[in-house]
Amino acid sequence: MQTPLPDYLSEVLTACSPDQEGELPDDIPELASADPGRLALALATIDGEVYSVGDDEVPFTIQSIAKPFVYALAIQDSGLDTVLQHISVEPSGDAFNELSLEASTGRPFNPMINAGAIAAHSLVIGPGADEGARTERIIDAFSALAGRQLSIDESVLESELENNHRNLGIAHMLRASGLLPDDPAEVVRGYAKQSSIAVTVRDLAVMSAALANGGRLVHSGERVMHSHVARQVLSVMMSCGMYDATGDWVTQVGIPAKSGVAGGIVGALPGQLGIAAFSPPLDPQGNSVRGVDLFQRLSRDMGLHLMDAEQPSHSVIRVIDEVADDAGEAWLVAEVFGAVRFSGGERVARRISGVPGIDEGGPTRVLLDLTAVHSLSEVARRMFVETARRLAHEGHRVLVLDPQGFTADADEPTIGDARVVGSLPWRRDAGA
Amino acid sequence: MQTPLPDYLSEVLTACSPDQEGELPDDIPELASADPGRLALALATIDGEVYSVGDDEVPFTIQSIAKPFVYALAIQDSGLDTVLQHISVEPSGDAFNELSLEASTGRPFNPMINAGAIAAHSLVIGPGADEGARTERIIDAFSALAGRQLSIDESVLESELENNHRNLGIAHMLRASGLLPDDPAEVVRGYAKQSSIAVTVRDLAVMSAALANGGRLVHSGERVMHSHVARQVLSVMMSCGMYDATGDWVTQVGIPAKSGVAGGIVGALPGQLGIAAFSPPLDPQGNSVRGVDLFQRLSRDMGLHLMDAEQPSHSVIRVIDEVADDAGEAWLVAEVFGAVRFSGGERVARRISGVPGIDEGGPTRVLLDLTAVHSLSEVARRMFVETARRLAHEGHRVLVLDPQGFTADADEPTIGDARVVGSLPWRRDAGA
Amino acid sequence: MQTPLPDYLSEVLTACSPDQEGELPDDIPELASADPGRLALALATIDGEVYSVGDDEVPFTIQSIAKPFVYALAIQDSGLDTVLQHISVEPSGDAFNELSLEASTGRPFNPMINAGAIAAHSLVIGPGADEGARTERIIDAFSALAGRQLSIDESVLESELENNHRNLGIAHMLRASGLLPDDPAEVVRGYAKQSSIAVTVRDLAVMSAALANGGRLVHSGERVMHSHVARQVLSVMMSCGMYDATGDWVTQVGIPAKSGVAGGIVGALPGQLGIAAFSPPLDPQGNSVRGVDLFQRLSRDMGLHLMDAEQPSHSVIRVIDEVADDAGEAWLVAEVFGAVRFSGGERVARRISGVPGIDEGGPTRVLLDLTAVHSLSEVARRMFVETARRLAHEGHRVLVLDPQGFTADADEPTIGDARVVGSLPWRRDAGA
Amino acid sequence: MQTPLPDYLSEVLTACSPDQEGELPDDIPELASADPGRLALALATIDGEVYSVGDDEVPFTIQSIAKPFVYALAIQDSGLDTVLQHISVEPSGDAFNELSLEASTGRPFNPMINAGAIAAHSLVIGPGADEGARTERIIDAFSALAGRQLSIDESVLESELENNHRNLGIAHMLRASGLLPDDPAEVVRGYAKQSSIAVTVRDLAVMSAALANGGRLVHSGERVMHSHVARQVLSVMMSCGMYDATGDWVTQVGIPAKSGVAGGIVGALPGQLGIAAFSPPLDPQGNSVRGVDLFQRLSRDMGLHLMDAEQPSHSVIRVIDEVADDAGEAWLVAEVFGAVRFSGGERVARRISGVPGIDEGGPTRVLLDLTAVHSLSEVARRMFVETARRLAHEGHRVLVLDPQGFTADADEPTIGDARVVGSLPWRRDAGA
């Protein structure tokens, strides 16, 4: 059996009208000659599944979509504090190629506009790094994220280098403000190279899925950036990713995103998905017309809007109060599933404390089964531990079934008076 | 047993240093004389549980925190299109009391600044409504959200009315631009009243939990606004809620929020929680100093940042391939739990299609158990239905256990060749 | 014989094409119904001669042209320091109805935009004055300047009062910033009245000629404002008078000016002329289309551009070295004419010091004849006195013929050793 | 006898307190090491007299004071229309080193800020000119204006070239906007050279006196730029010359001016004077603290404010009604002196038409004596001619004594019936 998703994506692509308006960018000749009919869409789950339709093997240059990933590298290499000293995180309300420096500090408003992105580029490896080393670092990192070796489109690069006066202007301005210690011309050359890396929508979906996955590669689970870095990048994409159309995008699409002048758009839904669309003609804000349309359809049809209350939310707890063990003793069983964070932990503690008889009927046998939990946040862990401790303290007999060792420190198989066990012979095996 | 959450909240409150700086607002005498030592914190879950600590019974005026809720009323009463014609949704980067009108359209930048909030107030009920009716509508709606009768703090109101020249200025400007059909003085009086409604942190947490709950009251589940309205409001809180500190807030706290000049801050985490903090001294941006601190601690400790990949995410699927029915026949059982949206549906379809033997070993008995699902998005429903249909079409024997009727239209008990049943005698009863 | 000027003005009026574009203002109904074909032009010299052509008897409302004159009253009544604390003098580059407050001080940018003009209105008489008294003061002052009793056009006033939300907005904003101590509604009502005073181009030309005349009425020579006040007003007209078209106006016309939305424009050329034009249709900047055209023609044809080097400049000195007195003695006579300021004084001193024989040929008789001087600046006076003193000190016989008493303090008929006389019997009478 | 002016200037210099605050610019090392105690002042009249005091022989770099002169060259070489297409003339209200491009057109706001000045530099000779040729053209032109060979201060130039990132940023931005066809680095190098030309206050006073003189060298009278160019430059100096302190400068000093970061300030009073001051310490706006003080004193003491009504204004007319010619016939004599423009012409026509007896007493002999006129504007010429024509037509006997030929075309010795003569034997010779 094939999953129905590819068919669904094909429907979306077909529904996205081909006769929409939009213009190819006229400032970079190589982009101006792109085929306006290209159209592609890709999704990548955080566990590595990739779906794509349309011109999904057609390469195009990454352009501004490189910005969030290079911002991530800058934070990893130079540290968040240093990066924040050079680049703010406020939406500017300006167009992408505005200078947009904060009046008070001279910092670029955010790393999603050119000024901030050029500053971010210069913080990869760190001040003084040479251009070749930076470019190599960026191509290597992008290749790792995409899961295949990427390379520069030399003809687009050449075209960019002939038309980079605005970026040179910005870089010299940053240098004048003390925000760019390196040679402006060299930094802008490196910046042009990062923008000219050729990718497909599949590459972009996989790359952004790594952001959605908290900085771990989706195909291997390997961590390539700290989860705080991924979070910082997604936050900035959310508030500043779509230039002066950010407010419309946040209300209508609700997915952290970034677009590029070659027609690509990526989105990343934390904990869920990476998405990428490709269609060259642009709207006046510089975003792909059909790319925006595709994202709007996906968000609406697939319920991806981050502000939807019907989030793929609750970890699940199933409380069963009559399960007999091998000895015929009845246990109150609380099974917990999924990724458990604060609200899950709160619900577990509340449900157990609310079970009839827990507080009245004398000592009870309680089994807290964490077998199907696949992640547990610190606050949830503390709440589980404290719940088990209190139950045991009140005289109940408590077992915590925790084969993955979320709750117990090292070899300490107790939480207060509760016993922590890795397996339970009399329970049927559960596959999460 | 008591749940450990209250103790945890007390710890957070204690950790929030009392000697932080901050100033009482000096433009409204009644607020300037507030007790700067007040401190309170409340959480409300979307299923109606409320936890609170500190001065949680001390009333204070809601001030700008009324803005998102009145914006919701405006959309309900006048329609989103009309509201968008009067008020944009873009972050302005300006301070809260700036005029901040868009150059091209004259519209206020967003409904979280005064200009936009005054316009939103005038769209409650609709143009031409009298001030008394609007005030009554707002108090009634806020009371319903809070779950208790709220009222205006008359002494603060009086103080506001004596110091409302800036708002009168804004209202006359809006009137001059044709964005305010009603009498500016009357609208500003009504606006002062909405700002002077007295609330506690418990009220605010419960009110914002209704936004987090997609527009349903948390104590009764009653729907008081369309889920699209709640989504629009949360989106605007996310991108514009904290004035010119929005970028810092989004990166550091990551929760849609709104602050008020009386020292309140509310946050709403879609699908999870409402949060409210209260402490009168303000920072230069007009946000409660200790309120911001509390939110930063909660976000960090409790893992509430919306851009965290470790979201309380995945609905859970448990696939068990050897369950015998009463007749001793083995079934492949796929149990699905929780709120299922796109990524959950995708996972279910993929897991089933990937079970060893499904495609090779000849016809199989498959049971798709949706008993524990509590919501199912349209795209996920389509994927379930299509998965069942394809399996049946390929010759498998398929049962969809769907006692809540998510999948089947009306009385049609089949999906393709799959049979949809409401209960399964040989399955033990599961409490979700 | 008639002077040829009226014919010349008629030519200019005829040359100003009637089919130029332009729109009547649509925000005040009474102005929107004006006759777009009206056209008038008037010049008034600083000695009281008035020339006018076209619809020179047709009254129209003064509108923003009241601003410079009310600014003058504000300075006279409240003092320049107080006025500068409330209103800056910088060009704003904004349109006339923008709020345009300085970020740092909250002051309106200048008194030629509405915000500054409303603040200026409130400084007439001073804070706390009632609206009636201010209106009376303004009408009286304008009537004195125009040389006839002016009055308010009640139907335009009524129309203004129904459409003054923007000004009310501005006034409340100023009040909120502490820049307007009085009731905003009352101040805006008074402001509407000042704008509704009916005038003709003859009135306006005479009024602005008083500014050109250093604050003295042109028909009577009566001083109605200090010369520093007139200078301040003209300076602000020069740099801020034509809104966002100021740069074009300064380069192309070069005359301090102010326009009104009813189609009037006034200009004032210091020491020379007042000019007024009238034609209702406006350009997008809110300036009369044909009024601007008339001023461009006048400036070009009549050489009125203030930055023209060929200024009606030099006072004249005529040095004649062979004039015999009654006794037959030869005198070196230096006659000085006109308004003498620094450059005139410099020239006199230089010319006398450069006369052949002054330094070589032994004592000489020198007559410094100031009979035809009609004004003498302080620095020029000092130079004359010092020149006479030095000549006498070097042994020359020096007479200063100064029947108007420019040089001598009271009864002291000497300057050093030079003798100051009021008349000279052996000189023929000269009519200046 | 010495003229008292040098003593006066010395007094002004002494009065200018040496202990005023101000900082040396810290971005160019060579300027940061200037002697803060240097102080100099110079005046140059438009007929070539130069007065100077203090450190009047100390050279310093011209810096931004080059801007108005290079703007003049750009207009001469590329034409005003082309220059206006590249550079606007509106005050920007920004600091000198802001980018300050107009939103609508991308043009720099005016040629007095760096962006506009860099664009102006590139229009010297014209697009495509090489840097050496431009530099030579500029040095030659400045040398001609100053009346001596000027040269570049190589050590300041070197320091500038090491710190020109802001200007490089601006130039690349202009290139990106299509406003700078040449290589940005080359243009900025040339711009640095123009800024590094070494001058004294005497040089600057003489150079600006040429602007005041309508584009003619003051020592030779040679025309080096069209009078319209000088007028355009002075207009822009008036409205934009002192950056964001322009409004204060226009009201308080009232002289078109330009300052440089090395401590120089020049002013030019049309038809009168060039002024230059020098003192290195700068105020926060980048203007020389003591230089501003000197200009304020000069303007106040010497009555130089352009908006003063007591302008060195009126040409003078002396009407004498009883002068006998050799034949004993009585003539009505009207002598006109000085530079005559519109208001002078108007006065002559009016005075003659108002002489008792002209219209009543039958034919009269009228002598219009223009011997002492030194310039006559077109409108004044037309008024004289028309006045003479009308008088003759009415039967009077009219002679126009016009030895300089202002009124008569070529060989035509009549105006209507009036006779134009070049000399009058029976009149004594008058030295103007």
From TrEMBL, chains A, B, C, D:
Pfam families: Glutaminase
Keyword set includes Acetylation: yes
Keywords linked to the UniProt accession: Acetylation, Hydrolase
EC number per UniProt: 3.5.1.2
Gene3D superfamilies assigned: DD-peptidase/beta-lactamase superfamily, STAS domain
Positions that bind substrate: S64, N114, E160, N167, Y191, Y243, V261
GO molecular function: glutaminase activity
Protein's GO biological process: glutamate biosynthetic process; L-glutamine catabolic process
InterPro entries for this protein: Beta-lactam/transpept-like, Glutaminase, STAS_dom_sf
Catalytic activity, as annotated: L-glutamine + H2O = L-glutamate + NH4(+)
SUPFAM superfamilies: beta-lactamase/transpeptidase-like
Complex and partners: Homotetramer.
Entry's family note: Belongs to the glutaminase family.
Name listed for the protein in its UniProt record: Glutaminase
Species, as recorded: Pseudoclavibacter endophyticus
Record gene name: glsA
